[in-house]
Amino acid sequence: MITAGRDLYDDPRFFEGYRRLRNAESGINDAIEIPAMNRMLPRVAGTAVVDLGCGAGGLARRLADAGAAHVVAVDSARRMPALAIPHPRVRYLRADLDELTLPARSADLVVSSLALHYVADYAGLVRRVAHWLRPGGRFVFSVEHPICTAADPMTGWRATDDGALWPVDDYATEGPRTQNWIIEGVEKHHRQVATLIGVLLAAGLELTGIDEPVPGPATLQSHPHLAEHLRRPPLLVLAARRRPVDPAKGVS
Ligand SMILES: C[S@@+](CC[C@H](N)C(=O)[O-])C[C@H]1O[C@@H](n2cnc3c(N)ncnc32)[C@H](O)[C@@H]1O
Fold first, then answer.
1. Residue to mutate (ligand 1; options 50, 75, 93; most atoms within 8 A of CB)
2. Distance 76 CA to ligand 1 centre (A)
3. 9 CA to middle of ligand 1, Å?
4. Which residues' Cβ are closer than 6 Å to ligand 1?
5. What is the pLDDT of residue 250?
6. How far is the CA of 52 from the centre of ligand 1 (A)?
7. How far apart, in Å, are the Cα atoms of 74 and each of 50, 91, 96?
8. Res 241 pLDDT > 90
9. Confidence (pTM)
10. What angle do CA 216, 235, 205 make, to 5 degrees?
């Protein structure tokens, strides 16, 4: 059985496994992804923020604590509110990102942490994000690195006579991939790096940042098992901006 991202976190076996994993924190979120997102995020004081695929709302609450005026935190999973801690400036909204609509020019910042590789129609979502952003507004997100999502099925490290190797195959064939992660048949979507960026540009956004974060020396001392991520990048972080108002032409 294949379980699509929008339904995955409501599967009781997956949800329990994911909750245990996040509670036990293997390090990739706390030691690699969150610091990389923090480096890429703009100042948020007074801004209107949308968090796509918010999960338990950790990023949404961090941004609210950092001064965001309000955060709309969106997730399709019915079970996520059980994990989400309330915050006076975070509104949790249950919706599928493939169908989400928000008012035009209502957001200064749209963020997403490790959720967009579950979304089937990335180009459609990015076009909507561009529509939601105010001129000068930012879009910052992380996804599993396309080097990690390329092979189908996503087997992870493979034992060979030369030691463990990470298979990269079918890189240019974009589309759904299956992975046994906590449960069998988890569905993710593979896209080339060029597509992830090209779709932003086609939607009229400017690329303002790119990162392939890996653990630094201090992280490796506290989390030596993360050294495998030096061999292939686990994550890709992208930042884009809707053009600010062009005084000659008005709002672009
Ligand atoms: C790996 S979790 C990340 C959660 C959170 N951003 C974090 O970093 O802790 C991915 C989240 O994306 C959500 N998700 C996946 N597909 C979705 C979709 N089509 N619409 C809305 N949410 C989706 C899942 O329910 C899950 O909460």
1. 75
2. 7
3. 8
4. 5-6, 9, 53-56, 58-59, 75-77, 80, 96-98, 113-115, 118-119
5. 60
6. 7
7. 7, 8, 8
8. yes
9. 0.94
10. 115
The CATH topology of domain 5-242 is Rossmann fold (3.40.50)
DSSP string of the chain, one letter each residue: --B-HHHHTTSHHHHHHHHHHHHH--SIIIIIIHHHHHHH----TT-EEEEET-TT-HHHHHHHHTT-SEEEEEE--TTHHHHPPPBTTEEEEE--TTT----TT-EEEEEEES-GGG-S-HHHHHHHHHHHEEEEEEEEEEEE-HHHH-SSSB--SEEETTEEE-----TT--EEEEEEESEEEEEEEE--HHHHHHHHHHTTEEEEEEE-----HHHHHH-GGGGGGGTS--EEEEEEEEPPPBTTTB--
112 CA to centre of ligand 1 in angstroms: 9
- Reading the block at residue 227, the tokens are 């050294």
Environment class of 66 (CB within 10 Å of its CB; exposed 0-12, middle 13-18, buried 19+)? middle
Partners of 29 in the beta sheet?
Answer: none
137 close to 107: Cβ distance less than 8 angstroms: yes
Tell me the domain boundaries of the chain.
5-242
Tell me the CA–centroid distance for residue 66 and ligand 1, in Å.
22
Q: Assess contact for 178 and 185: CB atoms under 8 A.
A: yes
User: Structure tokens of 129?
Assistant: 């994000």
Cα torsion angle, 240, 145, 214, 83, sign: positive
**pLDDT tens-place string over residues 7-36:** 887 888 888 888 777 776 667 899 999 999
Percent of the chain with pLDDT over 90: 77
Query: For ligand 1, what atom is nearest to the CA of residue 29?
Result: 8
